[in-house]
Input
Amino acid sequence: MAEKALVIIPTYNEIGNLGQIVPQVLSQDPRIEILVVDDGSPDGTGQLADKLAAENPRVHAVHRAGKLGLGTAYLAGFKWALERDYEYVFEMDADFSHDPRYLGRLLDAARDADLVLGSRYVPGGGVENWGFLRRLISRGGGLYARLILRVDVRDLTGGFKCIRRQVLEGIDLDSVRAEGYVFQIEVTYRALLAGFRVREVPIVFADRTAGTSKMSARIAIEAIWLVPRLRRSAAAAIARSGERRQAVETP
Output
């Protein structure tokens, strides 16, 4: 039986994108299914997700009461996946900034890696339609996190990932609290601390053409003061997770 993959797509007011991106994602590989995690979108995105799920058994939808944040949306999706038989779990935006054509490339790279990052900052990667300030914030934020955490990952803040099941089982998801950029940094950093193999695959990130960005000043500021705390909190979380696994495995 082929190992199944789940693409988690968090949504809030993405009705202009969801109906287009779902068929494109599904066409990339027959192993791929989709979970839409909608945060009570007032524009009807959640209802569209239900319609798509009713029409195709490879599409699923989860509804949350309100706009609870990107990080918690992914955590809800991770736990949903772990309760079912998915070997690979993707993070992906609904707005086409993450091009579905890269899904197969990330899935192939996961044959010899535990966490595969769609990277803007390795040779062959890049961004499109970004202004100078956004480029500066993204590059500067990534460099800041790399220096503080002392890791050699070029795109720590990227949100296009393919994650093996055992990574999600081994990084103590219940203790992850960060949002936005810091959430993405924390997932990758915890995987590295736990000894998982992390690989970067080049992608070109295109700015959204419909809807509005979910990034806010609060999330950018959060990255500045929370990243230094990750070194201690993430290491403690990985230690706890290892102790629990050892307790389970010890007869």
